[in-house]
Amino acid sequence: MIVTKLYHTLATVMLTMALSTLGTLAASAQNDVKEKDSFRAYLINNLYEVYLRINLYDQNVEVPGQSLYGQLPGYLGKQRNAFCWVIVSCNVKNEREAELQLINDFGSEDLTATLTRENDTLYTLRQGAGSTLKVPHNGKWRKLPKSLHFVRKK
Question: Is residue 41 a contact partner of residue 125, using CB atoms and an 8 Å limit?
């Protein structure tokens, strides 16, 4: 009888430890996925009707209709327009910040920018040195603010 109770208690303790370890591993795996996906996303700014399609890790994003560029870290596009700013190089500093080098699709302007993940859904693009981001809007060029917020969609 004592052996049976001891066996039952030992089995319960081992099961509890196994479940606890499994839960910790699952939580750790979720954090790793989140960190690895920080800069693999579709980000949108509805106010200025622009978006970022990025994969700064694999750098395998293609600009629709502009296969001449090949695979890239990503691009900033304009809704209902083919114009874009191409991300030609990037440096992921950590899971919250990346440095970007962009050129417009004419190749006539370039700039540096920092993309920061504020939380799981909010990102901020801050323009640095170089040209000012401009996109076509109602037949004219529209300058984008130096600091632009984006919401993660995918």
Answer: no
- Joined together, the tokens standing for residue 58 give 């694999």
Give the residue among 135, 133, 52, 136 at the shortest CA–CA distance from 90. Answer: 52
Distance of alpha carbon 128 from alpha carbon 35, whole angstroms = 25
Measured CA to CA, the distance from residue 146 to residue 127 in angstroms comes to 5
Residues β-bridged to residue 100: 90, 113
Domain boundaries, the chain: 1-36, 40-152
Q: Which residue do the tokens 């990346």 mark?
A: 98
* Three-state SS letters, the chain: CHHHHHHHHHHHHHHHHHHHHHHHHHHHHHHHHHHHCCCEEEEEECCCCEEEEEECCCCCECCCCCHHHCCECEEEEECCCCCEEEEEEEEEEECCEEEEEEEECCCCCEEEEEEEECCCCEEEEEEEEECCCEEEECCEEEECCCEEEEEECC
Q: What is the pLDDT of residues 12-55, one digit of tens each?
A: 544 444 444 444 444 444 444 456 689 999 999 999 999 999 99
Contact (CB, 8 A) for 112 and 100: yes
